[in-house]
Each structure stands twice: as structure tokens, then as C-alpha cells.
Specification:
About 25% of the residues lie in helices and about 30% in strands. Strands 2, 5, 6, 9, 10 and 11 form a six-stranded mixed sheet that branches. A three-stranded antiparallel sheet has the order 3-8-7. It has two domains: about 120 residues, Immunoglobulins (Immunoglobulin-like, Sandwich); about 35 residues, no CATH class. The protein is an alpha+beta fold and about 180 residues long. It contains two helices and eleven strands, in the order H-E-E-E-E-E-E-E-E-E-E-E-H. The structure holds 2-acetamido-2-deoxy-beta-D-glucopyranose. The site of 2-acetamido-2-deoxy-beta-D-glucopyranose has 7 residues, from loops. 2-acetamido-2-deoxy-beta-D-glucopyranose (NAG) binds next to loops.
């Protein structure tokens, strides 16, 4: 019985054509207010056979998924790709925790992570749906539920947008302090 399930596990890995040791843990979905930042807590693991190829010079890359996936962030040149932000920890800590700044409506979509070490370690975490993170961009804060006169409403709205932006900004920062 034992033997059968072990064989099945091994075959399962082979059939999928993947190296079993690769996995990633990140949220399925994160929300950002238009123009604000988003924080993606993330850790990854690699197949044991590539351990020596993962160094602190290894690249940590984010792709936006789609018909032709594009690089949106590359740790080796964090200011050149389309999403600005910061990736935390080090590659050898297997940390892929990332903050993206100034997230706009056009950035909404599905994202996946890729690690590129020396030699043959080049791996995109795409083979399971839960390996991708969906960035949802919210246009404006929820409408006030209290009904007010017109000009009062205007004042309240402006104030709320400002407050929510401040809170979200702080969230991204304080999430890092934990
Ligand atoms: C990854 O880095 C973030 C930010 O520095 C930190 O909060 C988190 O604890 C790290 N995760 C691991 C598993 O080291």
C-alpha cells in the first residue's frame, strides 16, 4: 500500500513535467486603491538540486500574466520595469515579498513570480492556479452610507479619499514592520 502511493506521488510529479521541489506561497488576491501601493507577502522554494545555484545575485522577477506575459518588475533593475516598488529580504532567504507603488487600473490582473539563478536555475511559478496573485485595483473608497446635502457630500468625499489613501499607505509600511 505504502509503495503504491509513493510510486503514484513520483509519477504525479513526472507527469506534470515539473520539479517537485518548486513551490511558492502568496495571497490569491490583493487589493490596492488606485494610485496607492500594494503589499504581497511571499516565500518560494526551489528543488533541492538547484540549491547551489541560488545566490544573493539571483534575480527575482514578476510577470504580468496574459497572452504574452511581460516582466513588470526585476530585482536586478527595480527602477526600469513598469511597476516600481521594492522586493524584500534576499534570494537565499527565499523571500519574494514585494511592494508595488502607485498601482493603477491598468495594472489589475494576474501576476506570477520567476527566479533566475546561475546556470540552470530558471523557474517561473505558473503550474498551479494558486501560484498566481490577482491584483485588484479599487477606483475610489466605498460610498458614504449617510446621505447628506450636495455640498456637504462633496466635502465628505474628498476627506474620505484622502483618509483612505493615508490608511492604505500606512498599511503597506506597517505590514513590513511586523
Ligand atoms: C521576507 O521579508 C519581509 C520583509 O523584510 C519580512 O517581513 C518577512 O518576514 C520575510 N519572510 C521570511 C520568510 O523571511
Amino acid at each position: 500500500m505504502m509503495e503504491i502511493s509513493v510510486t503514484f506521488l513520483l509519477t504525479g510529479c513526472l507527469i506534470q513535467g515539473v520539479f517537485c521541489g518548486f513551490s511558492i506561497s502568496l495571497p490569491k488576491r490583493v487589493e490596492a486603491l488606485q494610485g496607492s501601493c500594494v503589499f504581497i507577502p511571499c516565500t518560494f522554494d526551489i528543488d533541492q538540486q538547484y540549491v547551489t545555484e541560488l545566490t544573493d545575485d539571483s534575480k527575482r522577477i514578476w510577470y504580468k500574466d496574459g497572452n504574452s506575459p511581460t516582466v513588470v518588475f526585476d530585482s536586478s533593475s527595480p527602477n526600469t520595469a513598469s511597476l516600481k516598488g521594492e522586493i524584500f529580504g534576499t534570494p537565499t532567504e527565499k523571500n519574494c515579498t514585494t511592494r508595488f507603488d502607485n498601482v493603477l487600473q491598468r495594472d489589475k490582473g494576474s501576476y506570477y513570480f520567476r527566479v533566475e539563478g546561475s546556470k540552470n536555475l530558471k523557474y517561473s511559478y505558473t503550474n498551479k492556479p494558486e501560484y498566481k496573485v490577482e491584483i485588484v485595483v479599487i477606483d475610489s473608497p466605498p460610498k458614504p452610507t449617510v446621505s447628506l446635502f450636495k455640498d456637504q457630500q462633496k466635502v465628505k468625499k474628498v476627506k474620505e479619499v484622502k483618509e483612505v489613501k493615508e490608511v492604505t499607505g500606512k498599511l503597506c509600511e506597517s505590514a513590513l514592520l511586523d
